[in-house]
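So, can you check what follows?
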Amino acid sequence: MSDEAIHGHEQILEHTFAMLRSFPIPPGVNLLLPPPSTKTLDMQFEEYVPARSLTATVAVPQQYANAVGLLQGGFLSAMIDDLFGALSYLTARGPTTSLDMTTHYMRPVFAGERLRLHTEVRKGGRTAIFLAAEAHNGSDKLVATATCTVQVLPVPSS
């Protein structure tokens, strides 16, 4: 835990929105806060360490389950990707886009379980940021890992 860490969902949102509004926004882009994807996934932010990490929890809803009641892997990847996007944008202090993402699934997740997702910057740069993530279940068992490379996008001035 860091002295500069921000804790709690509302405090992280407030800090994040203030930061995002100060960043350059490409012309013609309407910044939607929180993003529709974050609202849909219903994640609760737990801790944000600027330019280092972002942690959230999420309850796995039944509608994300496959035919046997397990979380469909694409939804878990989407949850992690949503955090990668937020952390990379905040770290770059402007828009980013994913170049790649790889997810490794370790164990099944059942609908109704609560997951803790932790993303971190492995290496930041002016043109690319490398990120890693882990997802743990309520028993603190590792259920998935992921890595991602994002490109830092230039912001046109007009």
User: Anything to note?
Assistant: The longest strand covers residues 142-152.
